[in-house]
Amino acid sequence: MNEVTPDETPPGAPAAPAPAAASRDRAWSFAALTLAVLALLLLCWQWFDSHRQVDALRQEVAKKLSDADTLNKASRVIADQSREASTEAQVKLGVLESRVAESQSQQIALEALYQELSRNRDEWAFAEIEQSLLIASQQLQLAGNVKAALIALQNADARLQRMERPQLTPLRKALTRDIERLKAVPHVDTVGASLRLDNVIAAVDTLPLAMEMRPPAPPVAGARDTEPNAWQRFAREAWNELKQLVRVQNMDRPEVPLLAPSQAFFLRENLKLRLLGARLALLSRDQASYKADLKAARDWLTRYYDTREKSVGNALSTLRNLHDSDISIELPDIAATLDALRNLRIARERPAR
Question: The dihedral of CA 266, 327, 203, 320: what is its sign?
Fold first, then answer.
């Protein structure tokens, strides 16, 4: 068997590759491996980036959905509020429509009333004039209030003057005559007399009674130092004290009545009632009762009260002046004016019939 040496190549065997070719193959293999690794890394990075973008997109979509849900809820709340506001607006609109309809009906009624008043303006004027004249007649007959009656007649005359109708001339003549007659009536100061009576009534509780009078204190003698000794001064002072035990005084009215406290109370109250009666008689122009009550009050003041006191004297003077004044005055009537008004109304109603 022939041995083959390493340097020898057996016949028919392939030739061994050259070292350069092997090195080139290894380079290509390393490059391919590097490219594969890079491609793998690129794929991994793309997968990670895609996954991250998908997560971000998912979160954004979830946020959008949450915002959309919140907006949807807010929209539903706003829609409910709008629905309620619309319902309330419809109710208010219905109320306004009803009020507009009511105001229109009232306007129509007022227009009709205004037309009726325009047509019957003269009737209203005559009714007011007649009412004023009736008030004047009542004030004269019932209360004797000349001032109020005069004001009522002057108002009626002013209304007739504004009407300016020739057929009203007789009524105005009669009215003018009655006004002049009332102006000529003497004036009685009823209010002033009533106030003076009120002042006397308010002072009744403070007026002193006659039984409460106290005699004036005797003058105090000056001290005398001329006595020779103390025994004479003592005897003089003792004698003065003994004289004070009994006092003699001249009384202007020896019949001064003594009243118990309850009697004094009823005396004051009865005096007030007498003065109130005089005040009522003054307002009703009842001269007889007025003078009788004032005379009784003066008699009670003179008999039971201390007339030396200034307050009692003032009260007596006031009652005396009130008693001397006349409150009963013959008042004229306005029958002529009422007759003229009645004739005028009959003349106006006759053509209508």
Answer: negative
- 182: which 2 tokens? 């009332």
Q: What token pair was written down for 342?
A: 């009645």
Q: What's this model's pTM, rounded to 2 decimal places?
A: 0.44
**In angstroms, rounded to a whole number, what is the distance separating the alpha carbons of residues 312 and 310?**
5
β-partners of residue 305 are 209
Gap between the Cα atoms of 341 and 156, Å rounded: 11
Q: Please state, as a whole number, how many other Cβ atoms lie within 10 Å of the Cβ of residue 156.
A: 25
Query: What does the alpha-carbon distance between residue 326 and residue 330 come to, in Å, rounded to a whole number?
Result: 11
* Gap between the Cα atoms of 151 and 133, Å rounded: 10
Burial of 289 (0-12, 13-18, 19+ CB in 10 A): middle
For 229-264, how does the pLDDT look when each residue is reduced to its tens digit (9 = 90+)?
777 887 888 887 777 666 555 555 555 566 777 788
Q: pLDDT for 312-344, tens place per residue? A: 889 999 999 888 887 776 677 788 888 888 888
Helices (H), the chain: 19-119, 121-138, 146-163, 169-183, 190-203, 230-243, 261-283, 287-304, 310-324, 335-352
Give dist(CA 223, CA 233) in Å, integer: 10
User: What tokens appear for 50 in the block?
Assistant: 């895609």
